[in-house]
Amino acid sequence: MLDVRGIILHFRGVAALSDVSFQVKPRTIHAIIGPNGAGKTSLLNCISGVYRPQHGSISFDGHDISRLTPSARTKLGIARTFQNIALFKGMTVLDNLLIGRHVHQHTGVLGGGLYWGFGQREEIEHRELCEDIIDFLEIQHIRKKVVGTLAYGLQKRVELARALALAPRLLLLDEPMAGMNAEEKEDMARFVVETAEERGTTIVMIEHDMGVVMDLSNRVTVLNFGEKIADGTPEEVQRSKLVQEAYLGEPTDLSA
Amino acid sequence: MRCGDFRETYAEDMALFETAFARRAMFAFLAAMMAVPWVASAFWLDVSLRVLIAVVAATGLNILTGFTGQISLGNAAFLAVGAYSTAYLAGHWNLPFPLVIPAAGLITALVGMIFGVPSLRLKGLYLAVATLAAHFVIEFVASHWDSVTGGVNGISIPAAKMGPLVLASDRQLYFLALPVAAGLLLFARNLFRTKVGKAFVAIRDQDISSEVMGVNVFRYKLLSFAVSSFYVGVAGSLLAYQARIISPENFPISVAIDQLGMIIIGGLGSLLGSVFGAVFITLLPELLRLVTGALSTTFPELTTLFASVKMGVFGLAIVLFLIFEPDGMAARWHHIKNYWKLYPFSY
């Protein structure tokens, strides 16, 4: 579904990603893990188009998307959330979700300004789709609240809702559970699994909580200092020596 | 207190007015506004016409600056483009006003889009300086392109007409300006209920994430410049029809600053705010004039000080608003409304 090949990204001499390749299979939850500064978010930014890697190609469903703008990639069905919440803080939850419907709407300036007729019909149609997502993520009580006034955990959930409103085929989640308490994490994990299973969305997820990663993901890619050091099922990755070294340091023989 | 207000369909939930009372109040207000020409003196009629024109222009600027977050100092110039287009289309081609006004808007929209191109790269103050350049370019063109603009001597505009109908006096023009202003406000309100308007606000709040959400940011920034300039162009057209003679002196940079003042005092990103701000800033000098006029017998030196007093009070008003109500008059209005909504049980 997603095929990343030989990505090299550097910022004025600082290498962020060196020759990273991996594949994501349809309808799986694919986790990307690694210590801080390993290049996980940079990789996600390359996939969603925020960064342009100097070398390498990214293809989605067999189409090369390396040269497309972020908005063009979104139209193809790639949605994402951000590590530091990037919601539209001055807008209501509902309006944030409706922005998610942007690429599926066709009302122009005139249709919108004259409203009655086409504009209204389309708004109601998309409102219904947004309400489905609001029900799915259990945020009915805040649908008309301005996002900037909400608690952190809820904002994270709204961000997932906004990404889901796009009806994406590939969903990129950048630390969906960061800074959450145990209960909020459980809810979020449930939503991620349900998204994959019920909606058939393929998910690429960066996450630091190893319990969550090992429980949810079908496949894990591990990065360290911009290089891929392991790729496989959670069990395989856990057994990898390189991964153990990256996380725990090199084994020291204490008996010596 | 409001009660028994249930919504059963999404159409009801998305309605223009929250309650039937609000809708009736708006119609009553518009009817009262229609009656103004019968009660107002020539002086106040002139003022109210200028208020209506300012409302249209401030709404235009608010669409760009308040809703899309692109600061513009080019508003006086765009107003001039609308006014000169009117002079040319009505003077040279003798077109009727129902064609001239939208055409002036469209020409200004085009010019606005051209000067909006720097917004691809520039943000905030840098964009403000780029639009300031637009101001001086257009001012230069207006004072040197003699065959079209009449140069520094100015150009006269025939009265607005359509067949046998001639709108020459302020009273007649008022009946044109009021529906135009009301219609454009309604149009803007609808725009922000649908795709394009929401994309504008998204760009203001978070441009990177709106791009990632599939909004083509550059295209929508240009679109915002176009829509905004259309409004300003229409305002310029009405202004030309009222003034009947225009020259570059009608459009100094201070007009652009006044309009920024309107939307800041009224409320950035609020259509109601554009109306409040336009009314306030247009009425302020007139009220000051009345006050100084009444006091001039006792304090004759006030009349000579008038110009500086006016600027001083204008500045003071902006500073006070920024300190005490940074969200503008519209926010204050909502506070007051919310207070009365639950009165007497405020919790």
Number of strands of chain A: 10
User: Whole-number average pLDDT of chain B?
Assistant: 90
Q: State the total count of DSSP E strands of chain B.
A: 4
The total tally of domains of chain A equals 2
Return the CATH class of the largest domain in chain A: Alpha Beta
Shape of chain B: globular
Average predicted local confidence, pLDDT of chain A? 91
The biggest sheet of chain B amounts to: 2 strands, antiparallel
How far apart the termini of chain B lie comes to: 13 Å
Q: Taking strands numbered 1, 2, ... along the chain, how are they ordered across the largest sheet of chain B?
A: 1-4
Looking at the structure, what is the overall shape of chain A?
globular
Radius of gyration of chain B: 21 Å
How much helix, percentage-wise, in residues of chain A?
25-40%
According to CATH, the fold-level topology of the largest domain in chain A is Rossmann fold
Structural class of chain B: mainly alpha
Main sheet: strand order of chain A: 6-7-8-3-9-10
Helix count of chain A equals 10
